[in-house]
Amino acid sequence: MSRGENNTTGAGLDYGAPFGNALGPIQHIDVPMRRYGEEEVDYIVVGVGSAGGVLLQRLARAGFRVVGLEAGPFWDTERDWVSDEAGSHNLYWEDLRITGGKNPLALGANNSGKGVGGGSVHWAAFTPRLHPSDFRIYAEDGVGFDWPMSYEELKPYYEQLELEMPVAGPAYFPWGDPHGYAYGPHPMGGVGNALIKGCTALGIGVSIGGPVAILSGSHGDRQHCIYRGFCIQACKVGAKASTLITHVPDALANGAEIRDNCMVSRVHMGRENRVTGVSYFDKEGRQRFQKARAVIVSGYAIETPRLLLNSACPGYENGLANSSGTVGRYLMAQAGNVILGRFDQPVRMYKAPPAHCLTEEFYETDPKRDFARGFAIQTVGPLPIALPSR
User: Fold this and answer.
1) Is the dihedral of CA 44, 48, 53, 57 positive or negative?
2) In whole angstroms, how far apart are CA 77 and each of 90, 116, 234, 235, 387?
3) pLDDT tens digits, one per residue of 177-211
4) Rounded distance, CA 26 to CA 322, Å?
């Protein structure tokens, strides 16, 4: 299967080229996908999503024999993605999944993706940095725990990713560690203008145009954003960064194999506490075994612990990598308050990247408030089907 046969990309796209590091530029070649069969490979990557897609590329570039196993399809962006909210639900992992505990959560919708690219296919592409103070919340505010690393240690990786994806944003972002972005901000849309108008009237600082991993200008052969409005229903033009677009094509060109619609059911352990491979169900429902010297489980916060727990075996009766007994525990869902307003004139809030404008004026702890830490205010861009009728 070649990239051209898959129709997941156009030919010759400059995807995921890291800046100024030893990996060098991506070579633009269309070749049939390498097929390893049942021979032992160096690495299996379970889940070709946000992390798995990058790992697949890096390992293939380094010359390793690597196979990515993905429970969902290898998307054909022309055939499978539509400009229709109701027709885009197949992007999500919709299988019934319910957590345990005193407050169980039903998982689905935008909790995770199912398909090559994973959740990066339907994320909003909002890419803010943490503030330096986020790493020291116990030392500074007496809540939670301090991180075992500092913002300064993480900063070079923020910078690399912001160039590799790349990220568009203001030339000067004033909050936290002030910084800028290589690609300029997007033109402002109606919902962003509404936030700017309100913040300006109240004397609140506001930042325009990002940061978002959506191209405001061409990058290699990738097209810039055309403001189609379906960012979280998959970007047909490839302006929004997803590993399906940014890293997977290069992984294939460098010899990786991806087996889509293949659900891994167990990681197998052999002698000397070393993995031997994985069992999986292929797209015809047949159970297969793939040998590997190493297995990387990259299935997000839900499928990773489920697979590790399902892989219990003698010596690992509580599941793999679970000597602490915490695998699958302490799952925390993200909470966010969404406020809707009614305006006299049409806002057309979907005609711009969803997270297009924000303020972090209230991000840090303020002793005048009765709680530690703070919050940010940002725009969101729901499409009309998501709005209440009244």
Assistant:
1) positive
2) 13, 11, 8, 8, 26
3) 999 998 999 999 888 999 999 999 999 999 988 79
4) 38
DSSP run (H or E) holding 279: strand 275-281
- DSSP annotation of 86 reads G
The answer to whether the CB of 17 falls within 8 A of the CB of 34 is no
Q: What is the pLDDT of the chain when averaged over all its residues?
A: 87
The span from the CA of 65 to the CA of 68, in Å, is 10
| Whole-Å CA distances, 306 to 103, 118, 176, 285, 339 | 18, 17, 36, 19, 35
Place of tokens 């690609």: 183
Q: State pTM to two decimals.
A: 0.87
**How far is 129 from 133, CA to CA, in rounded Å?**
11
Q: What is the pLDDT of residues 244-263, one digit of tens each?
A: 999 999 999 999 999 999 99
Chain centroid to Cα 28, Å, comes to 24
Per DSSP, helices labelled H in 268-365 are 300-310
Give CA angle at 313 (311, 317), nearest 5°.
Answer: 95
Please give the domain boundaries of the chain with CATH numbers for all domains: 1-123+242-328 (3.50.50.60), 130-223+335-390 (no CATH)
DSSP secondary structure letter of residue 284: T
Question: Cα 22 to chain center, whole Å?
Answer: 24
C-alpha span between 72 and 47 (Å, rounded): 9
First to last CA, the chain: 49
Residue 101, pLDDT above cutoff 60: yes
Distance of CA 150 to the CA centre of its chain: 23
Angstrom distance (rounded) from CA 240 to CA 237: 8
Is the separation of the CB atoms in 23 and 61 below 8 Å? yes
**Cβ atoms of 358 and 377 closer than 8 Å:** yes
Q: For residue 388, what are its two tokens?
A: 């209440």
Indicate the DSSP class of residue 46.
E
User: Do 351 and 190 touch, CB atoms closer than 8 A?
Assistant: yes
Q: In sequence order, which residues have a C-beta less than 8 Å from that of residue 180 and are 6 or more positions away?
A: 169, 170, 171, 172, 173
> How far apart are the C-alpha atoms of 64 and 14, rounded to whole Å?
22
